[in-house]
Amino acid sequence: MGFSSELCSPQGHGAVQQMQEAELRLLEGMRKWMAQRVKSDREYAGLLHHMSLQDSGGRGISPNSPISQSWAEITSQTEGLSRLLRQHAEDLNSGPLSKLGLLIRERQQLRKTYSEQWQQLQQELSKTHNQDIEKLKSQYRVLARDSAQARRKYQEASKGVWLPFLEERGRTPSLQSYGQGARLAWLCGGASEGHSSNTALASGTG
């Protein structure tokens, strides 16, 4: 039998804890009831035994008389019932009640172990999550720094390619004004190729 993925959430954890608490309350109620039953049966058995020993005041009556025989039967059955109740009380105490106590302790230990393991898993998950976040932040900072450096180098290279030509013309045209061919040559060819493209462009326009 698998463990439902829905129980892995905090809500599922709370539901499991509530179920464990309800089971423990029920088991505790059963244990108290059985303990009271054992106590009551013992007390009742003792009272019946005491009653079976009482004298009915029938002295002087022949033991063979129907009344004496009836009384003897009543006291005998009362004593038998007393022994039966006492035996049932002892069996209940040594059997179900004792096993129920063991079951309660096992459930309590299970609840404790489950709670400890849940807390440990939550701590490990939080630690791993925080480590992943810090790792991503560090990677982002490195990439941002590399991007800034690449942008700065690009801007410096752009100034180095176009500045002589712009100074010669005495104006500051936009990159789009030189046509698509010049832009592609400058973007794909690097500084030296871009400079040669500018020279060709200057001679063409002159």
UniProtKB/TrEMBL annotation:
Q: Which UniProt keywords apply?
A: Coiled coil
| PROSITE patterns, per database record | F_BAR
Which SUPFAM superfamilies does the record associate with it? BAR/IMD domain-like
Q: What is the name of the protein in this document?
A: FES proto-onco, tyrosine kinase
Origin species, per record, is Ursus americanus
InterPro entries referenced in this protein's UniProt entry, alphabetically? AH/BAR_dom_sf, F_BAR_dom, FCH_dom
Q: Taking every annotated instance into account, which residue ranges of this chain make up the domain F-BAR?
A: 1-206
Q: Which SMART domains does this entry report, sorted A to Z?
A: FCH
